Amino acid sequence: MLGKLFGVEELKIELQEAREEIQVLEHKLQIKEKSIKELEDEVRILEGNIKSLLDENDQLKARPDHFGRVTRASGEHMRLLKMYQCNALSYQEIADKMTAYTGEKWSKSTVHYLLTKS
Fold it and tell me: How far, in Å, CA of 95 to CA of 87, rounded?
């Protein structure tokens, strides 16, 4: 009778409901922690992929055959350029002769570049 006066039964019911709510919240927390762990693992994998792609990109950049445009001057073209240069032709004259010979447009700057590079 004394317990009913002070609401002990109601307190026991509230305490039980609070315990059940705590269990539900702990379960939700475990699920969220598991989800966070999975996402962290995925991030680590993606970071590894990014690092390997950056390394591969750096290796490709370091290859000397991947810089600039591909030269269209073959060995024969270089021989002709040097021969024309020895004949004291100007870069423009050499470019005109190379254009006539190959059928492709040659500029005097291209001729200059190729002759100074070689």
Answer: 14
**Cβ pair 101, 80 in contact under 8 A:** yes
Q: Is 42 exposed, middle or buried (0-12, 13-18, 19+ CB in 10 A)?
A: exposed
Confirm whether pTM is higher than 0.85.
no
Dihedral, 41, 47, 50, 55 alpha carbons, nearest 10 = -120
Phi, psi dihedrals of residue 71, rounded to the nearest 5°: -70, 140
Q: Residue 75: its pLDDT value, please?
A: 82
Contacts of 78 (CB under 8 A, 6+ apart): 114, 118
pLDDT, one tens digit per residue, over 36-83 is 999 999 999 999 999 999 888 877 776 666 556 666 678 888 888 999
Residue bearing tokens 């039964």: 9
| CA–CA gap between residue 13 and residue 103 (Å, rounded) | 97
Tokens of 116: 């100074």
